[in-house]
Design brief:
heterodimer; A: mainly beta; seven-stranded mixed sheet; four-stranded antiparallel sheet; B: mainly beta; five-stranded antiparallel sheet; 54% strand
Chain lengths: 113, 113
């Protein structure tokens, strides 16, 4: 399986600011995914990120709010922009590893105050 | 799109007893059904999965069954231990590159010593 590292593991941010979350994988992977997990809830897909192309966003998520970069096959970032308390969640990076298994990073716990 | 329902939302068992978590899905094209365990402060960990050409799969104390006709699958944990306490998520996907997972709502399992 792939080893996935996310930074930061947690953060407390002021409303109106932005936070960039990094996801590093120890192997090259084609597909990377970003999920949001609101408190006590299940996982909701934000977007799919392929290297060399624009991320594909799910309904309810927009690029202006959640810009994603995928500069190479082992790295991706998710930015949460202009944050409000409603953005307080766990953000998870996932990779597709051997179709169709998927593995997750440990998550970034974001609190917006 | 796919819709996955998971029951129960919470489950409390005595150590040594069995635990069963059930999921139903809506998309007949789904053919891959993983189960994830999420401990507090960690990302989801893949614990077992099953493909549509298999009716049952077992790994030590964990087993998963699949009924494609009825579109439901279940996780069975035998001889539960306190370390089994966590939130468990089922998921479904048609598989293939870029086919993202649709998750159930999660089950909080508490194993009482």
């Amino acid at each position: 399986s792939a080893v996935i590292s996310q930074k930061p593991s947690r953060d407390i941010c002021q409303r109106g600011t932005s936070l960039t979350i990094q996801c590093q994988v120890d192997s090259q992977v084609t597909m990377m995914f970003w999920y949001r997990q609101q408190p006590g809830q299940s996982l909701t897909l934000i977007a799919t990120a392929n290297q060399g192309s624009e991320a594909t966003y799910e309904s309810g998520f927009v690029i202006d709010k959640f810009p994603i970069s995928r500069p190479n096959l082992t790295f991706s970032t998710l930015t949460v922009s202009n944050m409000s308390p409603e953005d307080s969640s766990i953000y998870l990076c996932s990779v597709e590893w051997g179709l169709p298994e998927a593995f997750f990073g440990q998550g970034t716990r974001l609190t917006v105050v | 799109g796919e819709n996955v329902e998971q029951h129960p939302s919470t489950l409390s068992v005595q150590e040594g007893d069995s635990a069963v978590i059930k999921c139903t899905y809506s998309d007949s094209a789904s053919n891959y059904f993983p189960w994830y365990k999420q401990e507090l402060g960690k990302g989801p960990q893949l614990i077992i999965d099953i493909r549509s050409n298999v009716g049952e799969k077992k790994d030590q104390r964990i087993a998963v069954t699949l009924n494609k006709t009825a579109k439901h699958f279940s996780l069975h944990i035998t001889e539960t231990q306190p370390e089994d306490s966590a939130v468990y998520f089922c998921a479904a996907t048609p598989g293939g590159a870029g086919n993202m997972l649709t998750f159930g709502g999660g089950t909080r399992l508490m194993v009482k010593p």
